Amino acid sequence: MSMSMAIRSTIELSEAAATDWDAIVIGAGLAGSVAARGLAQQGRSVLLVERATFPRDKVCGACLNQDAVAGLEAIGLGDELRRLETQPLERFQMHARGRSLCLPLTGGVAVSRRSLDSMLVAAAIASGVRFLSPVTVRVGAAAAEAPLRTVETLDSKTPLRGQTVIVASGLASQKRIDDERSESVADQHSRIGLGLQCRSFPASFSSGTIYMAVADQGYVGLARTSADVLNIAAAVDRQALRSCSPGQACQEILQAAGITELPDLHTGDWRGTSPLTRQRPQAGSHRLFFVGDASGYIEPFTGEGMAWAVRGGRAVVAAADRAIDGWNGDMIAQWTQTTRQLVGGHQRWCRMLAKGLRYPALTGSMVRIVSKFPSLGRAVVRQLNQEVAV
Ligand SMILES: Cc1cc2nc3c(=O)[nH]c(=O)nc-3n(C[C@H](O)[C@H](O)[C@H](O)COP(=O)(O)OP(=O)(O)OC[C@H]3O[C@@H](n4cnc5c(N)ncnc54)[C@H](O)[C@@H]3O)c2cc1C
């Protein structure tokens, strides 16, 4: 099943503004929809606000790893996931400097973000979440001790009030939060993300394989999400894009890595992101929790962002539930610590790998060593797939 039907608002803005919500969740990606649904299942009144019209695309490699699949299964969404059109992932094939290595994968699937995110919003609505879209909101500064946190719609400046606010607005989150203490800071050398849904590609790109091409100026991941779509996602140095188009930059990376049969990278709509690697000093502020990419993000080489988002979305339910019953300032430090426990270890791995990939000679040696000793590569894959208790 492909979920490409429009998902409309289930509430008018005027009604949303006339309600004091237990929780307002900003952003209907994985983290936001999972969090909103979990809180509604606890009997809380939840408003999920999304700036895009659903279904929407999202720059992403579209590969859900074993941990993310297990996370969705654990919250009762395994059947819904299986009903979508997915491609089971069996291999990770990495190319760098004309060499390649192949590692086996288990338990993950490639799935279009259009279908996956729509399925999650539909599940949240079915659990009682009210969905307001397309509406962009910004979070204003909080008055100390305020009993409610207010967010405001960007165009009509309509205030929306909640006992708690969950910011799950992804990498875009730094733009619309007026809160100095929790401001997110992008890494100076951070790459930016690019994405394309490609319908014209050589048959040699088979289903079930993640192809990863690594070169000096970035890396490109390719995976089929259906019989006729090759999902392309890349992390590219900003200066590489000053002199050429996204399609050219990705083509150069694929060629430098040694992939000779190329998909058509020059037609279709490329999408971009803001700088990828960013951190927040604390994962919350007064009556507010950051979750998913909004709480901090590392370049996506290991393809774990969705697992982190599902983990965060599940864990914030208990934290927000307590905050609705009675807010206290210690909850900010507690949530920051929980977030670090949930994703910190994996993000350290990911940061190390991403740094290593910036040194071409090191990448070449890594490919050589892992192709000689595949058990090393399998150990890394196992580590990345490891489930973390929520
Ligand atoms: C190039 C690239 C490749 C990747 N590949 C993979 C991969 O293969 N596997 C993997 O697991 N992860 C991958 N990731 C990471 C993954 O895409 C993210 O980690 C994941 O989407 C985070 O989910 P989220 O819910 O936190 O945010 P998002 O999915 O970004 O959702 C945020 C939502 O908030 C909405 N929003 C934003 N601002 C506002 C606002 N002001 N008001 C209302 N709504 C708003 C947006 O429209 C969006 O719907 C990749 C990322 C990139 C950039």
Automatic annotation (TrEMBL):
Q: Which InterPro entries match?
A: FAD-bd (IPR002938), FAD/NAD-bd_sf (IPR036188), Geranylgeranyl_reductase (IPR050407)
Which superkingdom?
A: Bacteria
User: Domain FAD-binding spans what residues?
Assistant: 22-319
Q: Cite the SUPFAM superfamilies for this sequence.
A: FAD/NAD(P)-binding domain
One molecular function GO term is: FAD binding
Q: What Pfam families does this protein map onto?
A: FAD_binding_3 (PF01494)
Gene3D superfamilies from the entry? FAD/NAD(P)-binding domain
| Annotated protein name in UniProt | 2-octaprenyl-6-methoxyphenyl hydroxylase
Q: Which organism is it from?
A: Roseimaritima ulvae
